[in-house]
Amino acid sequence: AVSGRELARLIHGDDVSSVTFSPDGQRLATAGGHMARVWDAVSGARLRTIAAGQLGFLSVFGTLTPDGKTLLTITMGGVGTGWDVETGAPLGSLDHGDQILGGGVSRDGTRAATCGSDRRVKVWDLAQRTLHATFTGHSDLVWMCVFSPDGARLLTTSSDGTAKVWDLAQGTLIASVDAGDIVWWGEFSPDGQLIT
Q1: Exposed, middle or buried: residue 11 (CB in 10 Å: 0-12, 13-18, 19+)?
Q2: Residues 6 or more apart in contact with residue 154 via CB below 8 angstroms
Q3: CA dist list (Å): 32 to 8, 63, 158, 186
Q4: Are 36 and 71 in contact (CB under 8 A)?
Q5: Which of 100, 137, 148, 190 is the most exposed place for a label (fewest CB within 10 A)?
Q6: Could you list the pLDDT tens digit for every one of the 196 residues in the chain?
């Protein structure tokens, strides 16, 4: 896309709250409104529509697992659901317990994280569909939770003006950075050594 020309136009059909590519770049997921859609990123063909919002919630966030075979949708109502991309069948659900504002999946596809208005961050074992850890320490809404490239740490951002890094194996806070204002967004550098 060095030319800057449009390669494809994907019509989601509602507001879009998230867009994610599979790591191989072959699939793309759009999510928002009451649904999530999975697309062939090369041809632009729609592969699957998942009506995740049928659960009665207004907004849906979605992300593909690294193998591109599972779509994880997270509703603001606090429910995370895994979907088989090929069949559209639900694979199971997890309940955060309060409004979810952000979420993510580790690169190896074994864990998911949710965060939200309850100021808590929850890490889930996707194979067992069980809660692995709960992190507390933010004093306001948590907007984002992002796994490090190696999956060993989690970065969280919050309205309390901090970004925090958590060690997933030890279940401990490694670092906290006070930005002095709401931290909406953050990510790890490709080598996992820095956060931005």
Answers
A1: exposed
A2: 113, 121, 123, 135, 145, 146, 147, 148, 165, 166, 168
A3: 19, 11, 22, 21
A4: yes
A5: 190
A6: 578 888 788 888 888 888 888 878 888 888 887 788 899 988 999 998 887 655 444 456 778 888 888 888 887 778 888 888 889 888 888 889 888 888 888 988 899 999 999 999 999 998 888 999 999 999 999 999 999 999 999 999 999 999 999 999 999 999 999 999 999 999 999 999 989 8
- Looking up tokens 């931005």 gives 196
Which amino acid is present at 160? D
Amino acid at 192: G
pTM here is 0.83
The partner residues of 147 in beta bridges, in order of sequence, read 154
Q: Under 8 Å CB-to-CB from 65, ≥6 apart: which residues?
A: 71, 72, 105, 109, 126
Query: Is 20:60 a contact under the CB 8 Å cutoff?
Result: no
